[in-house]
Amino acid sequence: MASRFLTLADVMEVLNISSAQAYALVRSGDLPAIQVGGRGQWRVEATVLEEYIQHQYAQTRARIDAGTLDERA
């Protein structure tokens, strides 16, 4: 059975980003997450991560259609 929640390390791996970037996404609210346990470890629901990814695809498509995509990346 697949896990419902992912750690920030899992998010880092899926998105191929650094820990600072993953934490910034959560802190900013761009990627909704919850804190669990006594030490407040962050968890992201797998479906929420997938929704975030789909939203990023949609935003990218909109920027391409508008001709405002930054091609430096």
What report would you give on this structure?
It contains three helices and three strands. The chain has a three-stranded antiparallel β-sheet with strand order 1-3-2. The N and C termini lie far apart (36 Å). It has helices at 8-15, 19-28, 46-66, and strands spanning 5-7, 34-36, 41-45. The protein has a single domain (5-66), classed as Orthogonal Bundle (Arc Repressor Mutant, subunit A), CATH 1.10.10. The radius of gyration is 14 Å and the shape is elongated. The model has no long low-confidence stretch (mean pLDDT 93). Helix 1 crosses helix 2 (19-28). With 73 residues, it is an alpha+beta fold. A hairpin with a 4-residue loop joins strand 2 (34-36) and strand 3 (41-45).
Give me the count of strands.
3
Average residue-wise pLDDT: 93
Strand order of the largest sheet: 1-3-2
Sketch the major β-sheet.
Answer: 3 strands, antiparallel
Query: What's the structural domain tally?
Result: 1
Uncertain segments of ≥5 residues (pLDDT<50)? none
The best one-word shape is elongated
Per the CATH scheme, the topology name is: Arc Repressor Mutant, subunit A
What's the gyration radius in Å? 14 Å
Give the amount of beta strand, in percent. 15-25%
* Helix share bin: 40-55%
Judged by helices, strands and strand pairing, the structural class is alpha+beta
Q: Architecture in CATH?
A: Orthogonal Bundle
Number of helices: 3
The N- to C-terminal Cα distance equals: 36 Å
Pfam family, one: HTH_17
Organism: Luteimicrobium xylanilyticum
Domain Helix-turn-helix: 5-56
Protein name: Helix-turn-helix domain-containing protein
